[in-house]
């Protein structure tokens, strides 16, 4: 997509939508659900369970020293989000699907980063248990990042298919 203003507007709308959904849902959970309280949504399959995570994905790094958390969970994500956003605005050949995917990833990453900076922890609250498949407790920012990642994977598969059907098109 070549128009820089259109790319920026699409990116901002997707980031704002994901960030708003994440922060609104966390705000409601913090206000309405007590720590470790379990609220069934769909029987035992989907439960809201509020936890406060001072680490990263699946509580990784929860026991790390403060300086390591600062570097790996705040400084590095800020730099990464900034670098990805700048790259997106400069590179005119990114597809619409890639822009949307990166918007989801930036929106979700920013949501959890905002919590870490403001509260020193991230509120997680969704747990799914389908007997054979069970998740950790996560939030809407995590859903945004996973959605963006799946969209990027779809984009990669589409590119590979195009490349295989038209070898003269160049590298993937």
UniProtKB/TrEMBL annotation:
InterPro entries (alphabetical): Peptidase_A8
- Which PROSITE patterns does the protein's record reference? SPASE_II
UniProt key word S-adenosyl-L-methionine: no
Q: Name one GO biological process term.
A: proteolysis
Pfam families this protein is in? Answer: Peptidase_A8 (PF01252)
The UniProt catalytic activity note for this protein reads: Release of signal peptides from bacterial membrane prolipoproteins. Hydrolyzes -Xaa-Yaa-Zaa-|-(S,diacylglyceryl)Cys-, in which Xaa is hydrophobic (preferably Leu), and Yaa (Ala or Ser) and Zaa (Gly or Ala) have small, neutral side chains
Q: What is its EC number?
A: 3.4.23.36
| Keyword Protease in record | yes
The source's domain of life comes to Bacteria
MF terms in GO: aspartic-type endopeptidase activity
- Record pathway: Protein modification; lipoprotein biosynthesis (signal peptide cleavage)
| Cellular component terms per the entry's GO annotation | plasma membrane
Q: Kindly give the membrane topology term recorded for this protein.
A: Multi-pass membrane protein
**Active-site positions on this chain:** 124, 142
Keywords from the UniProt entry: Aspartyl protease, Cell membrane, Hydrolase, Membrane, Protease, Transmembrane, Transmembrane helix
Q: Where in the cell is it found?
A: Cell membrane
Any stretches that span the bilayer, and where are they? 66-86, 93-114, 137-158
Family classification: Belongs to the peptidase A8 family.
- Entry's NCBIfam families? lspA
Job of this protein: This protein specifically catalyzes the removal of signal peptides from prolipoproteins.
Q: What is this protein called?
A: Lipoprotein signal peptidase
């Amino acid at each position: 997509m070549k128009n820089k203003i259109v790319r920026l507007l699409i990116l901002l709308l997707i980031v704002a939508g994901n960030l708003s959904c994440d922060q609104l849902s966390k705000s409601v959970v913090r206000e309405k659900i007590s720590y470790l309280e379990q609220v069934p949504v769909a029987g035992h399959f989907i439960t809201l369970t509020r936890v406060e995570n001072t680490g990263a994905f699946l509580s990784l790094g929860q026991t790390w020293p403060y300086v390591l958390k600062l570097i790996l969970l705040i400084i590095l994500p800020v730099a990464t989000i900034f670098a990805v956003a700048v790259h997106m605005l400069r590179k005119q050949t990114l597809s619409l699907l890639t822009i949307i995917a990166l918007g989801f990833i930036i929106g979700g990453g920013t949501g959890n980063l905002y919590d870490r900076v403001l509260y020193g922890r991230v509120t997680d609250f969704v747990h799914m248990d389908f007997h054979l498949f069970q998740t950790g407790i996560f939030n809407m920012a995590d859903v945004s990042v996973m959605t963006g990642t799946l969209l990027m994977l779809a984009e990669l598969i589409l590119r590979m298919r195009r490349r295989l059907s038209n070898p003269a098109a160049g590298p993937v």
